[in-house]
Amino acid sequence: xxxxxxxxxxxxxxxxxxxxxxxxxxxxxxxxxxxxxxxxxxxxxxxxxxxxxxxxxxxxxxxxxxxxxxxxxxxxxxxxxxxxx
Length: 85
Fold this sequence. Notes:
By secondary structure, this protein is mostly beta strands.
């Protein structure tokens, strides 16, 4: 007998919101850490690109409205951008 009820019950259809108070970029010892607070777990992908060098975090189910994207004091990070396409 095969039971898949638990796996089928989980849905990723709802949109997550960014939690600004739990979101920050920090640098320490030459490493950059992004702490992204979300209202719920969502699927994502992370990859790097060159020219210009950058790290891409791909979230299809996150609402970014009203989130201030700043890099105050984050050495080595020149900008943070959100592409809503």
